[in-house]
Design brief:
421 residues, alpha/beta, Peroxisomal Thiolase, Chain A, domain 1, 10-stranded mixed β-sheet, 14 strands, 33% helix, globular
Amino acid sequence: MIASDGRPQLPEAQRIVITGIGLTAPNGNSLPEFRESLLEGRSGVRSYEIRYVGKTLAGVCEFDSTKYQSRKDLRRGTRAGSVGVYSANEAVRDAGLDWPNLDPTRVGVFLGVTEHGNVETENEIFELQGYGYDTSFWSHHHNPRTVANNPAGEVALNMGIYGPHYTIGAACAAGNAGLIQGVQMLRLDECDVALAGGVSESIHTFGIFASFRSQGALAEHADPARASRPFDKERNGIVVAEGGCVFVLERLTDARRRNAQIYGEVVGYAMNTDATDFVLPNPQRQAECMQLALRRAGMVPAQVDIVSTHATGTVSGDSQECAALRTVFGGSDRTWFNNTKSFIGHTMGAAGALELAGNLVGFRDGVCHATINVDELDPECELRGLVLNQPREVGALNVILNNSFGMLGINSAVIVQRFVR
């Protein structure tokens, strides 16, 4: 099949669309609230204190955890699970699915995570010291709390889902990886509805703060709201944040059948590996990842309207990604670039999903949200089309490319296109 613009097009049963979005972010607990914060320049970063590390900064979520869970559920489960349960239920409501009448064996849950189990293990050891490290006081809930599939499993338990569920450990590319997995499972006919995205409880483990601090990569600023400053010449590191975002994915045939709202169509994606360093990125591999996603979408760089950058606020990471972006988009004079971490910090496993969600509304309102907190642009981060400090009305938007990269050299790119009936 050939689309109206001449590109090859998959059969409708293989075309995957986004029909629902549920999220919690440090500056919003629904897509409208999140989008409003992005357009108004409202940060979700605040002062924060955690054991052993002391005072620091973090992106903290404040959602109603009892909206879909009892207090007993919350005590037994995990923060990541609770974030996932809230986001997944909100996504299903947003999608308008006839949930009670869906076949639960045909629903799958695919959530990306950066890490899982650190929070629960640290908490157990801290509590155990009060009992002289007598392990007979160790919680019998520890194992189900710390298994790698926990966040997706808690969603499945909460919502009565019988289909496949698992988490995807993909470092900070995990939000994109969860989405990609959902697309693939639908195309393989393993499910009819995929709840896909990413979650993070990272601010509740002192280890991640301590490690970034020892690495010299933990952001500091007198004003918490200005601490996350990708591309700025004075940027000094990452603001750790929690959050979650779950998409409802369906085949276009099924979405049409029920006349569902459609936020966009996933038309391309790619993942690859640097294989060069534990932490330092490789701009050549990042560029190759974006180029592969574009080839799979049947697009050229000039067709991309917005690139949602991964940039975390580290000196080397931001400049290396910008080098990769110049390689891919250097010849385009109509592509805009923005960054969401400047508002909320780095939500780790949720980052890719949240950052895509915040930009998807651009298909409807024609606005590209800004990167905030850039007082002086680092020359190494110079990009034609970089939107700084104030949102830009850019008119009709048709294509978004969402970057998400992570430690051990994992790279991901997802391309979503405006859907036109």
